[in-house]
Amino acid sequence: MTTVAAYAAPAAKAPLERTTIERRAVREHDVLIDIKFAGICHSDIHQAQEGWGEAIFPMVPGHEIAGVVSEVGPGVTKYKVGDRVGVGCLVDSCRKCENCEAGREQFCLNGSVGTYNAIGKDGEPTYGGYSEKVVVDENFVVRIPEGLALDEAAPLLCAGITTYSPLKRWGAGPGKKVAVIGLGGLGHMGVKIAHALGAEVTVLSQSLRKKDDGLKLGADHYYATSDPKTFEELAGSFDLIVSTVSAPLDIGAYLGLLKTDGALVNVGAPEEPVALNLFSLIGGNKTLAGSMIGGIAETQEMLDFCAAHGIGSEIEVIAASEINEAYERVVKSDVRYRFVIDTATI
Ligand SMILES: [Zn+2]
Ligand SMILES: [Zn+2]
To answer: What is the top-level taxon of the source organism (predicted)?
Structure first.
């Protein structure tokens, strides 16, 4: 066991504070990672505040981890000391069920193990990336290609894969009109990736406040959803809409923006249920879908894609002492576009 410094929420809704945690000794297939950067995802805040239900405390959040391998177990074949690696939302799964075999470990039928706020197969709670080091089985570690800076790569481990996976699955590419709802941590990655895939990209944001940014990130068009004319003008326009917002939306109004056979995929996770008149799905054979991160192999594919297209996250690097302030700013959507903790400051 190694004692490492970390930032933890001692209880639900309590501010995060500096503490120490134990990391297990490196086992046969484990790698020890010196964490360099950890992104702050909105879901860290939902969980630290128990917005998604009962959680495990103390909680060390963080599932956007970028670092360097500093030790490997004797059975490790994929990584060596000095490799640049990342860890996303999962650190284990059963590896035998139908979904694990298909590379969809996030839907392990026997329960995947979250990077934090979860209990590992060894019965111990998992602690996330707001810490100096982490020990992870090599099969749940991905390689960060040379072309990507570690700080800009960290948010790809959640925000990147969360948007890449549905864009790929639903065919974003040349000749397709794709809209991204919300230009935040997820949304800005959705815009960059959809653009790199060759789609015509529209941002649907509450206001035009971030329009210049959106166009710079690769959007072709930018509309304010607070303007009712937007919904008239864009009716029947899109092959695919990806919603990244975690506030309740008028889903029916957005379904009206889809072409026949279009799909609206939700990756944001509002805490409250939403109401929907199903006639808005029936007319036009529309699909309302969800998507949750991606499997390990797809996460590697996303990193390779981002490196090939020069795509990192737009970030504000902060010191660990600024985490609580950053949380308040994320809740107010006051970040362009992802906070990343420099873990050397923990
Ligand atoms: Zn996340
Ligand atoms: Zn499984």
So the answer is: Bacteria
